[in-house]
Amino acid sequence: MTDLSVDSTAVDQAIAVRSRRISARELLELHLARIAERNPTLNAIISLDEERARAGAAAADEHLARGGELGRLHGLPHAFKDTHDVAGWRTTYGSPLFADHVPDADDLVVERVRRAGVVVIGKTNVPEFAAGSHTFNRVFGTTRNPVDPGRSAGGSSGGAACALASGMVPLADGSDMGGSLRNPASFCGVVGLRPSWGRVPTWPTTNHWETTAVSGPMGRTVADTALLLSVLAGPDPRAPHALGDPGSVFAPPLHGALAGLRVGWTPDLGGLFPVDPEVVAVVEDAGRLMARSGAHVFADHPDLGLADDTFRTLRAWLFQAGFGQLLAEHPDGLKASLAANVRAGESLTGADVARAYEQRTRLADVAREFFERYDLLVLPTSQVAPFPADQEHPREVAGQPVTDYLAWMMSAYAITVTGCPAVSVPAGHTPAGLPVGVQLVAAHGRDRFLLEVAASFEAARTWGG
């Protein structure tokens, strides 16, 4: 046994198991004890199966004792996001229509994480079909913020972020269309990376060329997030859009510096969306910290004025394609906000979708040109701090009413449609002590660079900059 705890970094936990300072069995029991302590209040881990987890930990220890080849995550307890299919494990997508669904095969993301040696313990809670950035559903209920259980943990990877922040798991996988890795990371005080499109391939899928949603990693530190990305990333012959870099190029340690970086800083992309003043204050502090650390920080931003129409059109089209038949068969089977989003797609024409893709191409060009002048873009991850958990979404932002469940997420989804990698890193707290993340964005394909910069920012915050 060792003085290792569930709050130790995933990097340290993986090293400890590999070096036999702690067994997979012992590490699992530590995490099960934390789950028993905190999950009844927070509701982050679902479909927990302690018996299967203990059998998996025993198998991991036996594999190590035999001298078998070890994956990067050997012996670490892991719960998969409940929208990722795990063979033989209940996977509901947060929908009562799939409350008893048990897949026959793993998603590619699950396949890779399992191959890396994790001990599967269960799933993490999601909103219904991962729609929305507040985690609640009619199957398992609401996931609550680990800092203040009266507040939202964000979403759609809210169960993942909450479980991670509270020490129930050392790492967490998730997915992100309009901010579903980044928003919960900001709300829960952890790191969430939306990788470049193509960095983490998806299979199986009905649409290889769908470019808005990606899978990605979360960690309590940037190095932990890089560790999981090193497992998730890399080409696969079943995914023709996958980028060619092997996952190993993202593995820690990370080496970077803020000094000399050209940074474009903005609180709102030139007034494109409102942001609560308490969030703006944290993002301003982040800019000052970077400047003190030697970065050249300028108030500047790319023109992403087309982002709102582009994202909303593509989301509605994709939701109608994905859930239209299900809604027709079960008119009352989907939550109201999701059903409305699906119906919004029914009126779209081919010209509407073509316009959205043309605009997305223009937005990618705008981002490319911006990153010819700057190394990094800095802006808020979320426009608000964690809001009350009994609301589906915040009712106002900076005094302006929120009209629907997407309107407060534009700081994240405006970046989505550029295709660029973006990471939310803990940056401070509101006066009430609620976590606030800052969003760091780099040019498409520069995921390793982005992680190195994020690690440098994390270190500067730790040591005062």
Automatic annotation (TrEMBL):
This is Amidase. Residues 26-451 form the Amidase domain. Pfam families: Amidase (PF01425). SUPFAM superfamilies: Amidase signature (AS) enzymes.
